[in-house]
Design goal:
Elements: E1 7-11, H1 15-25, E2 33-37, H2 40-49, E3 55-59, H3 69-77, E4 83-87, H4 92-100, E5 105-108, H5 113-124, H6 143-153, H7 157-167, H8 172-179, H9 183-197, H10 202-209
Parallel strand pairs: 1-2, 1-3, 3-4, 4-5
Helix pairs in contact: 3-6, 7-9, 8-9
Amino acid sequence: MSNAPHSILIADDHPLFRSALQQVLGPLFAEATLHQAANVAELQSQVEQHPDLNLLLLDLHMPGALGFSALSWFVGHKPATPVIMISANAHPETVRRAIDHGAAGFLSKSADINDMQDCIQRVIAGERGLHPGLDSRADGASLQSLDVAEALASLTIQQFRVASMLVEGLLNKQIAYALDVKEATIKAHMTEIFRKLGVHSRTQAVLALSSLQVELPQDLNEPPSA
Protein backbone atom coordinates (compact mmCIF):
# COMPACT_ATOMS: atom_id res chain seq x y z
CA MET A 1 0.00 0.00 0.00
CA SER A 2 1.34 3.39 -1.01
CA ASN A 3 2.52 5.82 1.68
CA ALA A 4 1.15 8.77 -0.29
CA PRO A 5 -1.84 10.50 1.33
CA HIS A 6 -5.15 9.05 0.21
CA SER A 7 -8.13 10.97 -1.13
CA ILE A 8 -11.36 9.27 -0.02
CA LEU A 9 -14.98 10.21 -0.71
CA ILE A 10 -17.73 9.25 1.74
CA ALA A 11 -21.14 9.38 0.06
CA ASP A 12 -24.08 8.92 2.42
CA ASP A 13 -27.12 11.06 3.11
CA HIS A 14 -26.95 10.59 6.89
CA PRO A 15 -24.47 12.99 8.60
CA LEU A 16 -24.08 10.70 11.61
CA PHE A 17 -23.05 7.75 9.45
CA ARG A 18 -20.64 9.90 7.45
CA SER A 19 -19.09 10.92 10.76
CA ALA A 20 -18.95 7.28 11.86
CA LEU A 21 -17.11 6.32 8.67
CA GLN A 22 -14.64 9.12 9.28
CA GLN A 23 -13.94 7.55 12.67
CA VAL A 24 -13.43 4.18 10.99
CA LEU A 25 -10.99 5.67 8.47
CA GLY A 26 -9.06 7.83 10.93
CA PRO A 27 -6.82 5.13 12.43
CA LEU A 28 -6.11 3.66 8.98
CA PHE A 29 -5.22 6.78 7.02
CA ALA A 30 -4.24 9.58 9.39
CA GLU A 31 -2.99 11.75 6.52
CA ALA A 32 -5.92 11.08 4.19
CA THR A 33 -8.07 13.84 2.75
CA LEU A 34 -11.69 12.93 3.36
CA HIS A 35 -14.47 14.36 1.21
CA GLN A 36 -18.21 14.06 1.75
CA ALA A 37 -21.35 13.91 -0.37
CA ALA A 38 -24.97 13.75 0.82
CA ASN A 39 -26.57 13.03 -2.56
CA VAL A 40 -25.66 12.04 -6.11
CA ALA A 41 -25.31 15.63 -7.33
CA GLU A 42 -22.73 16.30 -4.60
CA LEU A 43 -20.98 13.00 -5.40
CA GLN A 44 -20.67 13.99 -9.05
CA SER A 45 -19.42 17.44 -8.08
CA GLN A 46 -16.75 15.89 -5.83
CA VAL A 47 -15.66 13.62 -8.67
CA GLU A 48 -15.14 16.66 -10.88
CA GLN A 49 -13.25 18.56 -8.15
CA HIS A 50 -11.07 15.65 -7.01
CA PRO A 51 -9.92 13.52 -9.95
CA ASP A 52 -7.32 11.83 -7.74
CA LEU A 53 -9.79 9.90 -5.57
CA ASN A 54 -8.41 6.61 -4.22
CA LEU A 55 -11.65 5.21 -2.80
CA LEU A 56 -15.41 5.79 -2.72
CA LEU A 57 -17.53 4.60 0.18
CA LEU A 58 -21.03 4.66 -1.33
CA ASP A 59 -24.38 4.28 0.38
CA LEU A 60 -26.75 2.18 -1.71
CA HIS A 61 -29.78 4.41 -1.16
CA MET A 62 -28.45 7.85 -2.09
CA PRO A 63 -30.87 10.68 -2.93
CA GLY A 64 -30.76 11.14 -6.69
CA ALA A 65 -29.89 7.50 -7.40
CA LEU A 66 -32.04 4.64 -8.62
CA GLY A 67 -30.69 1.44 -7.12
CA PHE A 68 -27.24 0.84 -8.60
CA SER A 69 -27.33 3.87 -10.94
CA ALA A 70 -24.83 5.96 -8.94
CA LEU A 71 -22.46 2.99 -8.69
CA SER A 72 -22.75 2.36 -12.43
CA TRP A 73 -22.12 6.00 -13.29
CA PHE A 74 -19.09 6.27 -10.99
CA VAL A 75 -17.51 3.01 -12.17
CA GLY A 76 -17.88 4.17 -15.76
CA HIS A 77 -16.28 7.54 -15.12
CA LYS A 78 -13.63 6.43 -12.59
CA PRO A 79 -12.85 2.79 -13.47
CA ALA A 80 -9.52 2.85 -11.63
CA THR A 81 -11.06 4.04 -8.34
CA PRO A 82 -12.52 1.22 -6.22
CA VAL A 83 -15.95 1.49 -4.64
CA ILE A 84 -17.09 -0.11 -1.40
CA MET A 85 -20.88 -0.15 -1.27
CA ILE A 86 -22.37 0.21 2.21
CA SER A 87 -25.96 -0.52 3.14
CA ALA A 88 -28.26 -1.78 5.85
CA ASN A 89 -29.62 -4.03 3.10
CA ALA A 90 -27.22 -6.98 3.30
CA HIS A 91 -29.48 -9.35 1.39
CA PRO A 92 -27.39 -11.86 -0.61
CA GLU A 93 -28.93 -10.79 -3.92
CA THR A 94 -28.14 -7.13 -3.20
CA VAL A 95 -24.53 -7.99 -2.41
CA ARG A 96 -24.10 -10.11 -5.54
CA ARG A 97 -25.66 -7.45 -7.79
CA ALA A 98 -23.45 -4.74 -6.28
CA ILE A 99 -20.33 -6.79 -7.00
CA ASP A 100 -21.61 -7.56 -10.52
CA HIS A 101 -22.11 -3.84 -11.14
CA GLY A 102 -18.53 -3.06 -10.24
CA ALA A 103 -18.29 -2.62 -6.48
CA ALA A 104 -14.94 -3.75 -5.12
CA GLY A 105 -16.53 -4.65 -1.80
CA PHE A 106 -19.76 -4.57 0.16
CA LEU A 107 -20.23 -3.76 3.83
CA SER A 108 -23.30 -3.95 6.02
CA LYS A 109 -23.89 -0.81 8.07
CA SER A 110 -24.08 -3.10 11.09
CA ALA A 111 -20.64 -4.62 10.41
CA ASP A 112 -18.03 -4.68 13.14
CA ILE A 113 -15.54 -1.79 12.97
CA ASN A 114 -12.64 -4.23 12.62
CA ASP A 115 -14.38 -5.90 9.65
CA MET A 116 -14.94 -2.50 8.04
CA GLN A 117 -11.32 -1.50 8.51
CA ASP A 118 -10.08 -4.83 7.18
CA CYS A 119 -12.25 -4.58 4.08
CA ILE A 120 -11.18 -0.98 3.40
CA GLN A 121 -7.49 -1.82 3.76
CA ARG A 122 -7.77 -4.82 1.45
CA VAL A 123 -9.65 -2.87 -1.22
CA ILE A 124 -7.11 -0.03 -1.08
CA ALA A 125 -4.42 -2.70 -1.48
CA GLY A 126 -6.05 -3.92 -4.68
CA GLU A 127 -8.37 -6.77 -3.66
CA ARG A 128 -11.83 -6.97 -5.20
CA GLY A 129 -15.13 -8.80 -4.67
CA LEU A 130 -15.05 -8.54 -0.88
CA HIS A 131 -18.15 -9.02 1.24
CA PRO A 132 -17.02 -9.82 4.81
CA GLY A 133 -19.45 -12.03 6.67
CA LEU A 134 -22.01 -11.88 3.85
CA ASP A 135 -23.23 -14.49 1.39
CA SER A 136 -23.21 -13.43 -2.27
CA ARG A 137 -24.25 -16.75 -3.81
CA ALA A 138 -27.67 -15.45 -4.80
CA ASP A 139 -28.80 -14.52 -8.31
CA GLY A 140 -26.67 -11.74 -9.75
CA ALA A 141 -27.35 -8.81 -12.02
CA SER A 142 -29.46 -9.44 -15.11
CA LEU A 143 -28.04 -8.92 -18.58
CA GLN A 144 -30.49 -6.05 -19.05
CA SER A 145 -29.32 -4.26 -15.91
CA LEU A 146 -25.69 -4.69 -16.96
CA ASP A 147 -26.49 -3.19 -20.36
CA VAL A 148 -28.33 -0.29 -18.70
CA ALA A 149 -25.40 0.21 -16.32
CA GLU A 150 -23.04 0.45 -19.28
CA ALA A 151 -25.30 3.06 -20.87
CA LEU A 152 -25.53 5.04 -17.63
CA ALA A 153 -21.75 5.01 -17.36
CA SER A 154 -21.58 6.92 -20.63
CA LEU A 155 -23.99 9.67 -19.58
CA THR A 156 -22.77 13.14 -18.72
CA ILE A 157 -23.65 14.52 -15.29
CA GLN A 158 -26.51 16.55 -16.76
CA GLN A 159 -27.82 13.60 -18.75
CA PHE A 160 -27.71 11.45 -15.60
CA ARG A 161 -29.80 14.03 -13.73
CA VAL A 162 -32.30 14.20 -16.56
CA ALA A 163 -32.58 10.39 -16.62
CA SER A 164 -33.13 10.31 -12.85
CA MET A 165 -35.89 12.92 -13.08
CA LEU A 166 -37.44 10.99 -15.97
CA VAL A 167 -37.78 7.96 -13.69
CA GLU A 168 -39.41 10.17 -11.07
CA GLY A 169 -42.13 10.93 -13.62
CA LEU A 170 -41.27 14.57 -14.33
CA LEU A 171 -42.22 16.10 -17.67
CA ASN A 172 -39.63 17.80 -19.88
CA LYS A 173 -40.80 21.26 -18.86
CA GLN A 174 -40.59 20.31 -15.17
CA ILE A 175 -37.07 18.95 -15.62
CA ALA A 176 -36.09 22.11 -17.52
CA TYR A 177 -37.42 24.26 -14.68
CA ALA A 178 -35.60 22.20 -12.02
CA LEU A 179 -32.29 22.38 -13.91
CA ASP A 180 -32.81 26.00 -15.01
CA VAL A 181 -32.35 25.27 -18.71
CA LYS A 182 -34.52 25.52 -21.81
CA GLU A 183 -36.96 22.74 -22.59
CA ALA A 184 -35.22 22.28 -25.96
CA THR A 185 -32.05 21.37 -24.03
CA ILE A 186 -33.92 18.68 -22.12
CA LYS A 187 -35.35 17.29 -25.37
CA ALA A 188 -31.80 17.05 -26.74
CA HIS A 189 -30.67 15.25 -23.58
CA MET A 190 -33.63 12.86 -23.85
CA THR A 191 -32.72 12.01 -27.44
CA GLU A 192 -29.19 11.13 -26.36
CA ILE A 193 -30.39 9.16 -23.32
CA PHE A 194 -32.78 7.14 -25.48
CA ARG A 195 -30.01 6.46 -27.99
CA LYS A 196 -27.59 5.24 -25.33
CA LEU A 197 -30.24 3.08 -23.67
CA GLY A 198 -31.38 1.71 -27.04
CA VAL A 199 -35.01 2.73 -26.46
CA HIS A 200 -37.54 4.83 -28.34
CA SER A 201 -39.89 6.20 -25.68
CA ARG A 202 -40.07 7.53 -22.14
CA THR A 203 -41.90 4.39 -21.01
CA GLN A 204 -39.19 2.13 -22.44
CA ALA A 205 -36.50 4.27 -20.81
CA VAL A 206 -38.18 4.08 -17.40
CA LEU A 207 -38.58 0.31 -17.70
CA ALA A 208 -34.92 -0.08 -18.67
CA LEU A 209 -33.65 2.12 -15.83
CA SER A 210 -35.92 0.32 -13.36
CA SER A 211 -33.81 -2.82 -13.86
CA LEU A 212 -31.26 -1.17 -11.55
CA GLN A 213 -33.73 -0.84 -8.68
CA VAL A 214 -33.15 -2.65 -5.40
CA GLU A 215 -36.06 -4.07 -3.44
CA LEU A 216 -35.70 -3.88 0.31
CA PRO A 217 -36.01 -7.21 2.14
CA GLN A 218 -38.63 -7.41 4.85
CA ASP A 219 -36.01 -7.59 7.57
CA LEU A 220 -32.83 -5.61 6.90
CA ASN A 221 -31.07 -6.92 9.99
CA GLU A 222 -31.46 -10.63 9.27
CA PRO A 223 -30.54 -11.41 5.67
CA PRO A 224 -31.79 -14.86 4.66
CA SER A 225 -29.24 -17.64 4.56
CA ALA A 226 -28.42 -19.19 1.22
